[in-house]
Amino acid sequence: MSNLLEVKNLKKHFPIKKGAIFPKQVGAVKAVDGVSFHVRKGETLGLVGESGCGKSTTGRAILNLIQPSEGEVIYKGEDISHYKGEKLRKLRQDIQIIFQDPYASLNPRMTVEQIIAEPMRAFGTPKKEREEKIDYLLDVVGLSSYHKHRYPHEFSGGQRQRIGIARALTLDPELIICDEPVSALDVSIQAQVINLMEDLQKEFDLTFIFIAHDLSVVHHISDRVAVMYLGEIVEVGEVEELYANPKHPYTQALLSAIPEADPHLKRDRMVLEGDLPSPSNPPAGCKFHTRCPFAEEICRTEHPELKDVSTGDHQAACHLVKEVVGSNG
Ligand code: SF4
Ligand code: MG
Q1: Average pLDDT per run of 10 along the chain, which is 329 residues long?
Q2: Is residue 249 lining ligand 1, measured as CB closer than 6 Å?
Q3: Which string of b and e fits 245-261 if b means at least 16 CB within 10 Å?
Q4: In whole angstroms, what is the distance from residue 79 CA to residue 210 CA?
Q5: Is 242 in the pocket of ligand 1 (CB under 6 A)?
Q6: Which whole-number Å values give the CA distances from 177 to 5, 96, 119, 195, in the listed order?
Q7: CA-based Rg of the chain, rounded to a whole angstrom?
């Protein structure tokens, strides 16, 4: 599989300003702080971490909903990070986003039909084609077109997310950034929506970046998973390898918090001390050292880079994990 998307050293720093009349920049919130990863065509990359670790900002910076401070976003071989105007508008056909909150992301004054038609109107799809596509897409996401004259508040959370998914499909995108699409839903509904998304991925040859704060949510749908901490990727790898053989202490802690049905697979619970440090004043060296049970002197001063940690496609950024040479990753 070739790379559809390549993100290189992406940064998004939000300036902190002080002073009412002549505000001066006194610092920055380093929401995304040098993130690199790739997404192959047709795969799902899970992007995981606690809230505030920069996952959503990364998703929005890829789409240019917020302008990256630094770095490259290579989509189909072209750096799209500085796209503006018509180029950016065209790109938004190809790359869509599905938001966490189906309540907030659907206009309450529009009917389902109008909501799904909106992107097609904006791109000039003829009326007849629009109407056919609305019926087709409602069917595809498991809602009857019989409901298309109703308003969002008449639907359940899961149904509203299906409407959001239908809208995201209207312009035949290739890449969909799914920003916690099931986090607001009941657990039983989460599985249904994730299964639907998997079916749609196969049917429409879609590529997903699937953002979640929970490693159990992305396990099923992801081909590879990247774990973020304080604006950086600390571990990335093939899903089965990463879950069976997590190398970074932060990944180990996240995995140990997942309730495991099979007692033989149960891991010792690793409880993280302390709160997530502020992204405006992250710790020096390894940003995780203030909470890492294995931290040593070097961790406080030297920043660990991602390196190959197994013979598969698996990298982690930790001083205590041995580099494995001869990786094909
Ligand atoms: Fe922990 Fe040090 Fe590894 Fe960071 S580099 S995760 S502090 S052991
Ligand atoms: Mg978020």
Answers
A1: 92 91 89 96 96 93 93 96 92 91 84 95 95 96 92 93 95 96 89 95 97 90 97 97 95 87 66 86 96 96 96 93 70
A2: yes
A3: ebbbbbbbbbbbebeee
A4: 22
A5: no
A6: 12, 6, 16, 16
A7: 21
- pLDDT for res 262: 59
Looking at residue 208, what DSSP letter applies?
E
Nearest Cα to Cα of residue 11 among 200, 226, 231:
231
Does residue 177 form part of some domain?
no
Distance CA 229, CA 227 (A): 7
Domains: count for the chain: 1
Q: What is the ipTM score, two decimals? A: 0.95
- Residue whose Cα lies nearest atom 7 of ligand 1: it is 289
Residue 273 falls within a domain, yes or no? yes
Strand ordering across the sheet containing 232-238? 95-98, 175-179, 207-212, 44-48, 224-229, 232-238, 314-316, 307-308
Is 295 a pocket residue for ligand 1 (Cβ < 6 Å)?
A: yes
Q: Atom 6 of ligand 1 has which residue's CA nearest to it?
A: 318
From 235, 247, 289, 322, give the residue whose CB has the most ligand 1 atoms within 8 Å, as the site to mutate.
289
Neighbours of 25 (CB within 10 A): 10
Q: Show the domain range for 264.
A: 246-329
Does residue 155 lie in a domain region? Answer: no
Residue 105 pLDDT: 81
Q: Decide if 225 is inside a domain.
A: no
319 in ligand 1 pocket by Cβ < 6 Å?
yes
Residue 292 beta carbon below 6 angstroms from any ligand 1 atom: yes
254 CA to centre of ligand 1 in angstroms: 15
The whole-model pTM stands at 0.93
